[in-house]
Amino acid sequence: MDFSGSLTEYLKRYFGFNTFKGNQEAIIKNVLDGGDSFVLMPTGGGKSLCYQLPAVMMEGTAIVISPLIALMKNQVDAMRNFSTEDDVAHFLNSSLTRSAITKVKEDVMSGITKLLYVAPESLTKEENIEFLKKIVISFYAVDEAHCISEWGHDFRPEYRRIRPIIDRIGRAPIIALTATATPKVQHDIQKNLGILDASEFKSSFNRPNLYYDVRPKVDATREIIKYIKQNSGKSGIIYCLSRKKVEELAQTLQVNGIKALAYHAGMDSATRSGNQDKFLMEEADVIVATIAFGMGIDKPDVRFVIHYDIPKSLEGYYQETGRAGRDGSEGRCITFYSYNDIQKLEKFMQGKPINEQEIGRQLLLETASYAESSVCRRKLLLHYFGEEYKPSNCESCDNCLHPKREFEGQEYVVQALSAINEVREKFKADHIAKILSGVANSAVKTYRHHKLDIFGSGDEHDEKFWNMVIRQSLIDKLIVKEIENYGLLKLTGRGRDFLENPRPFMLTEDHDYGENAEEAGAYGSSTAAVDEELFAILKDLRKKMARDKNVPPFVLFQDPSLEDMAIQYPVTMEELQNISGVGAGKAQRYGEGFIEVIKRYVDEKEILRPQDMVVKSVVNKSGLKVYIIKSIDNKRALDDIADARGLEMSELLTEVETIVNSGTKLDLSYYIDMVIDDERQEDIYTYFREEAETDSLEEAMDEMGDDYELEEIRLVRIKFLSEMGN
Fold first, then answer.
1. Residue 714: C-alpha distances to residues 383, 458, 657 (Å)
2. Domain range holding 665?
3. Which domain-ending residue is among 322, 347, 372?
4. Out of 34, 35, 255, 512, which residue is the most buried by the measure of CB atoms under 10 Å away?
């Protein structure tokens, strides 16, 4: 086929670019010459141009097979922007009405349309096959071609039917394109499409501008909010495993002042595409999306991609992180990893065909190995895709910038393998860890494993340590976990060889990935350091204000609230309201003086405050609290309220105390008058008003004597705190 002028001139004329990137020019020449092509090009490398430019240059219409409706719409919009003709590109999929389909077919028949995007499901419809037989097809482009392979991260069975349908419609050159393919997946693609003789064009998988970071999944929501606020105004994508988590996280980000939107397959298409458009138009900074649903967002300035949940494969991870920094500028890829997430993904596989489980398990092991390894992350990723990365330090991943200490673990691995062998490969990891660390729980005793010689042989380390040894032995394929048999551990041939001929085995220290501490709470751990000097200043202030108002100090703020202030340094009314035990009422009534003192202290000491201190939760126990407040307003008996919500009276009183301590005024007089006579009420009330130094119930019980019930004292204390403090 002869084209006058150079390809660069056509590139400039149709797309406005002056130069090609990487292999683009060679690939386009091959397509124009009628050859089959296999293109392996990382996300952001410019794959779409490889079929868009030859399509507008050649006679006929190019058929682009793509799995995502969102991606098709995106690509069609992009092509229309480059062209003077809106009909230069169309898509044909299930989202179109009958009249829209008719219009598309008319434009294609007239020869105006140069690119027709088709979902593989639409391609298999008989009416579409008959229609495509009538037109001149310049070539077929199979985008996201990894969907063909069962070993790919996003296998679609309908992709395996593409070649037989092409044969029915009429053969034309085929170009298969993917951003992620291991050597095995590449062979699968070419074999299935019948293009084993295709010219291969492989670009490097190295994305030098991306920074890779894997963090333990501890208080991940808080960490994400902190990161986004430190990078205000930057575009980012957050991936979650479930639709429910997507909705929850998007809401949490919104209430914390972040412009975030949700995006998943369960939403109606108008909302979903509306949210995508808002992200592209920068009306929203962050999109929270499911891993399972490919987003097809071609946005060059995504500055961060965060995985709240670990992906099911390294291909998935690579493709999703690859959406960051496509313009060559900053791109940070942060993943929160907990081994619990790997176990959840394993459970999802149950019930699938055995071969699918086997493939899925191996892909998961690769992901866990990547997360837990202390080797350069770039080196590991590129090795996985069949490419060697020679520098010993990439200086752009957490492992290279913050090397973790490794230690020789040969003897520990031998101990773990021996224990699995000793119990005849019939027990799970937790059980083995208990045997080694010497924990004789009921299961260990039932099987008489506390009588084994190996019991307690590793008691210098705890269960967590032994679970880590087992996990890293799993990753090294010394043992396998049988999902069908409830996760029983078995030695592999490689593991038996290791037992007979132990070799050096490096373990990575301090990977505390076993526990998902996501629900640890919004105020940080109790081990956070209290600023003792500020705490003393706040106690003095509380005492002075209490004297002025003629109330005991604990009525203003209780000690835990002052401690939290001395950790978090709140300097605005909003921040103060989110201190433990301080609600809007108390903050407004007493907070101003405390804020001023803290602000002055922070300025004088030049303290760097934890700006991420508040993670407002969307719903905590607010439903129960609202119910209690309304019921008390309606003067319902407390025992009826407790029964209605299945609570013990003591549990209900704890909830009521929390409400009152946070500054909400509750009038319990109607109930207290029913259950405690006036004289006893007066005695308890007087104690708290005139004698008590703290609000301690134990001290009150000691002082009041055995004649008084704990419940009575609690009820009157609630009344006192509500009347005096709120």
1. 65, 49, 9
2. 622-725
3. 347
4. 35
